[in-house]
Specification:
5 strands, 2 domains
């Protein structure tokens, strides 16, 4: 079963008459919807176009193709290295095609929704795309559906970490929510959040005009700004403790323990969500057995929830809750031990390795959970910088006009410094928590991105 955000891939064979193989390859290249297999061994000797490209000592970044076989001598005279490079790619694929009688064939991958349109185009050349069974033990390349500007902006969180394996869930929604939540908790200042919101509006409007990449980040910046505004309102921070906003929840410097507790609680919720996604991924990767016994599957989730229940029971002085948590944690440890023992190959050495792995699992759980304490630590740092700037400002005001000017300068310069420094630190720390604490559970491996062969067709004049 595929999720709506993941494109179903099909293993296909491109079959064409030998005399029409080039035309079929050109059709495939122009469509840009097939990832053809390349030989694993050293490439064969180059064809005429490949040899010419080597003599030209160039490698164009934008190769192109002509509908009909080109005159290579004419391309050389007209300095059309782009067309030479495109023809060289066609020669490479034609060289590795499997030939049987009058038919030549290559294999590859293609998104299932694109097969009918491409098959119709190939039929004009007597060629066809033949669906094949997926090879056992081989995962297709991954192609995620486009989800618009917002999803595209947040998908960079996942793609920076790696390619989502084909069987797995795309965790972009969870990653986006988690990142924005953590950033806002560390960067909680409504004034600074408004600046980020303004920056997002400018990016959406295409400013600065030099960078298209920056414009694509406007949903990311805007969401981070909104989160900073929300937490700034909760903390009563507006360019520091200026008194513009009342404290709706907690002033970080007045009650750091409460903020620390909340940070760990947020971490527990995010880890539970990551485990939930991981259980589904393990099921899709290896079925119910892997989902049950993997340390990032049901076994790990049971240990995590069980230990959480034990801690909650001790805090609330509830023996029943603590006891139930202990039973769940013990069951999770047993399942994980069985999985580790089987993975190690069984026997006495496998039992020893399983014990080490169990100990490491429990230690990692604790360290991962308390890593989220940095949400409070950096939130306190941001608040302390804001307090320092505001204290310096108020200390200068009321002592004459020169001191007032200096106070304004301190306020502006201090906030600029705090904004730049804390935005960088909060952004990096949120990314670090995303990668090491959440994604390390969600993913156990990396997929192969879908890279279709695509070359433009030179328009005839």
């Amino acid at each position: 079963m595929r999720l709506p955000d993941t494109v179903r891939m099909r293993r296909v064979a491109l079959a064409a008459p030998r005399d029409d193989l080039r035309a079929a390859l050109v059709t495939v290249a122009v469509a840009g919807t097939v990832q053809l297999d390349r030989p694993a061994e050293n490439p064969a000797a180059p064809g005429p176009a490949g040899a010419l490209l080597r003599r030209l000592h160039t490698n164009p970044t934008e190769p192109a193709l002509t509908a009909e076989p080109p005159d290579l001598a004419e391309l050389e005279r007209s300095d059309r290295a782009d067309l030479v490079a495109g023809e060289a790619q066609v020669e490479e694929y034609a060289e590795i095609a499997v030939r049987h009688g009058e038919v030549a064939a290559l294999t590859g991958w293609s998104p299932e929704p694109d097969l009918p349109a491409l098959s119709e185009r190939l039929a004009g050349h007597g060629a066809a795309l033949v669906p094949l069974p997926t090879p056992r033990g081989v995962d297709p390349p991954t192609l995620l559906r486009s989800g618009g500007e917002v999803r595209g902006a947040f998908s960079s969180l996942v793609s920076t970490y790696g390619t989502v394996p084909y069987p797995d869930i795309d965790p972009t929604p969870l990653a986006g929510v988690a990142y924005v939540l953590m950033f806002g908790m560390m960067f909680g200042d409504a004034g600074h959040g408004l600046l980020l919101l303004v920056a997002a509006v400018l990016l959406r409007a295409g400013l600065p005009r030099r960078s298209h990449t920056l414009r694509q980040a406007w949903p990311f910046v805007g969401a981070a700004g909104l989160a900073a505004i929300v937490f700034g309102a909760l903390y009563g921070e507006f360019f520091g403790p200026t008194g513009v906003l009342p404290v709706l929840w907690v002033a970080p410097l007045d009650d750091p323990v409460r903020l620390l507790t909340a940070a760990v609680a947020v971490g527990a919720v995010l880890l539970a969500a990551a485990y939930g996604v991981a259980v589904v991924n393990r099921w899709r990767e290896g079925g119910p057995r892997l989902a049950m016994y993997a340390s990032s599957g049901v076994a790990g989730l049971a240990v995590f929830l069980g230990l959480g229940a034990v801690a909650g029971g001790l805090y609330l002085r509830s023996g029943l809750l603590a006891g139930a948590g202990g039973v769940v944690a013990a069951a999770g440890l047993f399942l994980a031990a069985v999985g580790f023992h089987a993975e190690a190959g069984g026997g006495a050495s496998g039992a020893v390795q399983a014990g080490v792995e169990l100990f490491d699992t429990v230690i990692r759980l604790g360290s991962n959970l308390f890593s989220f304490a940095r949400l409070a630590a950096f939130g306190l740092t941001h608040a302390a910088l804001g307090w320092l700037v505001w204290s310096g400002t108020t200390g200068l005001l009321g002592s004459g006009w020169l001191a007032a000017v200096a106070g304004v300068a301190v306020f502006v310069a201090g906030n600029v410094l705090a904004f730049a420094l804390e935005a960088l630190v909060a952004g990096i720390q949120a990314l670090r928590l995303e990668f090491y604490e959440l994604f390390s559970r969600i993913f156990t491996g990396e997929g192969e991105p879908f890279r279709p062969w695509h070359l433009p067709l030179e328009e005839e004049t």
